[in-house]
Design brief:
Pfam families: Rrf2. Keywords: DNA-binding. This is Transcriptional regulator, BadM/Rrf2 family. The protein is mostly helical. The protein has one domain: Arc Repressor Mutant, subunit A (Orthogonal Bundle), CATH 1.10.10. Helix content is about 50%, strand content about 5%. It contains eight helices and two strands, in the order H-H-H-E-E-H-H-H-H-H. A two-stranded antiparallel ribbon has the order 1-2. A hairpin with a 5-residue loop joins strand 1 and strand 2. Helix 1 packs across helix 3, helix 1 packs antiparallel against helix 4 and helix 2 packs across helix 3. It is elongated, with a radius of gyration of 18 Å.
Length: about 160
Amino acid sequence: MKLSNRTEYGLRALVTLAERSGGAPMSTRQIAEIEGIPEPFLDQIMVLLRRAGIVKSVRGVNGGFLLAQSPDRVSVGEVVRVLEGSLLLIGCVDEENGDMWCERTPICHTRKVWVKLNEGITKALGSLTLAEVVETEEPTSQAQAGKGGWGGSYH
């Protein structure tokens, strides 16, 4: 399973907002500069997060985005579902439509592996909150802290 840049950037933007929880709204430009994210792409991501109720927008000269709720109430799993869609590793683990993906679903022995793995990932992401990510995030360089030309990711 490889998560998209949309999810990586969205989570990084939310961590930036969580670090400033209770503060003034942040514009996408500010977040993009801090995190080294292309601003037009971040604009699209923030629309999805706003529609899902994860962030709220504030209009005006000093407007921008805020978390819609406390960072300890927003799970990484919720963010991933909003930005990626389904968390399914392989189609056959879909409880409602698994048979449509593979005719062997009812008799497949390896399906148990995928179901267990999918459940573990879903549980892990669902139990991790933005507050916990902020507490444990330890950038190892100035670039990773958003201070300069960051071209990779740290997860």
